């Protein structure tokens, strides 16, 4: 998942998977063997942060 070159496409895929497949970012990252902190850092470069209450990445 993190090997996606386009961070906006990554954002779209991650938010879709959070909506459809996982109850939390940690659950999603465990399923796909990803480091949640790296995902958070990568999406912060385009101005997004994880909103736990909504279970999605949103613009800052």
Please provide a written account of the structure:
With 60 residues, this protein is α+β, with helices and mostly antiparallel strands. It has one domain. Helices cover 50% and strands 13% of the residues. The protein is built from three helices and two strands. The chain has helices at residues 7-20, 25-31, 36-44, and strands spanning 48-51, 56-59. Strands 1-2 form a two-stranded antiparallel ribbon. Strand 1 (48-51) and strand 2 form a beta hairpin.
Structural class by secondary-structure content? alpha+beta
Total beta strand runs: 2
- Count of distinct structural domains: 1
Helix content: 40-55%
Net shape:
globular
Main beta sheet, described?
2 strands, antiparallel
Q: What would you call the quaternary organization?
A: single chain
Strand content: 5-15%
Span between N and C termini? 22 Å
Radius of gyration: 10 Å
Gist?
The chain is built from 3 helices and 2 strands. It has 60 residues and is α+β, with helices and mostly antiparallel strands.
Please give the structural blueprint:
Layout (H helix, E strand, L loop, with lengths): L6 H14 L4 H7 L4 H9 L3 E4 L4 E4 L1
Antiparallel strand pairs: 1-2
What are the key terms here?
globular; DUF4250 domain-containing protein; 60 residues; DUF4250; alpha+beta; 3 helices; single chain; two-stranded antiparallel sheet
């Amino acid at each position: 998942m993190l090997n996606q070159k386009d961070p906006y496409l990554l954002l779209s895929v991650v938010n879709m998977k959070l909506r459809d497949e996982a109850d939390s970012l940690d659950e999603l990252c465990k399923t796909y063997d990803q480091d949640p902190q790296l995902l958070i850092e990568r999406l912060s470069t385009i101005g997004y942060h994880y909103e736990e209450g909504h279970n999605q990445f949103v613009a800052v």
